[in-house]
Structure formats: C-alpha cells, structure tokens
Amino acid sequence: MKKLILILLGVLLLFYVSRAWGSEDVTCPKDSGWTKIDGTMPSYTTEGDIIIEVCVKGGQDKVFFTENGDNGCWKVMGIGTTSAYAQKIGEGRECKDISHASFLVGIMPTTLPTETITPSEVTPTPTEIIPTPTVNQVATPEPTHEIVVAPTTTLLPTTFVEEKEESISSIPQSELCRMTKGGLCL
Asked: What global pTM score does this model have?
C-alpha cells in the first residue's frame, strides 16, 4: 500500500514540476510559418500575405483562433487580412494576461474562389406586396369603362311633318310604320 502511495505522489510531483517549468506544448509555435510576438497586446503585419491563424498564450492556457472572435478572455481580430492583433477582454482569475501570441502567415490567393449556383438550386420565393399610402397621397379612382346603349329614334321625314300639321299621335300606326326607313314597326 505504501508503494502505491509513493508512486502516485511521484506522478503528481512530476506533473506539477513539468507545468511549473513550462513546456514547449504550452508555448505558441514559432517556426514553420509562425511568427511569435511577445507582449500583452501583440500585433503583427505581413508584407502582402495574409494571417490565417493566431495562437494566444496566457498563464498555462493556449488558444488557437482560425477566425476573428473571442473566447470570453481574449479577442483576436484581423484573420484573413495582412494585419492582426490579440487583446485581453475578460476579467477575473480565469482570464490570464497575454504573455505572447503567434501569427501564422499564408499566401494570399491571386483570385478569390467563387461559388457557382446552378439554376436548379435556386427556388424563387413569392413575395406579397401591399402598398402603403403616404400622408400626402391622394387615391385616384381607376377609370371604368361603361357601355351605354342609347335608344334608337326613328325620324320622320321633315317634309311629312311640315305638310301635315297634325300631331304624331293622330297618325295611324300603319301609316307611321310605312313611313319609317325599312318600314319596320315596333
């Protein structure tokens, strides 16, 4: 039993000592395209290539960022550009001060990739348009088209009216029908 306790104590001591002395695993990379910058608000500007990743280290913590944003303690901005920085934004014991950051540089593409959408992928969405009148807008009624049928009138020859001074009501119906154009009677 004493042997087991000694082994456990030895493992714990080894783990604690290795963390206290530091380890290459806790430090951000500094080779193979990475540039390490010391300081509490490290920043880096390239000569034309873009920054594609940032590693931030504070205390025993190390975080890799592949896009702009934050983890609640540290914020990184500028990924995808030629200039980036890391900044402490959180408070409290869990948010350690930044000791350094490393910036990974990649080659800026000469042409940006584009996404091609084929017509079968596009689904039109119908949109209902409801007009909203403004304060000074006056509604103008739409013109309507009506067909008006005027009653037809049969005119008697003026000579007949002039020669006969009697009223039209005194002329027999059969006579009136004969005098109209075509001789039609209603």
From this structure: 0.48
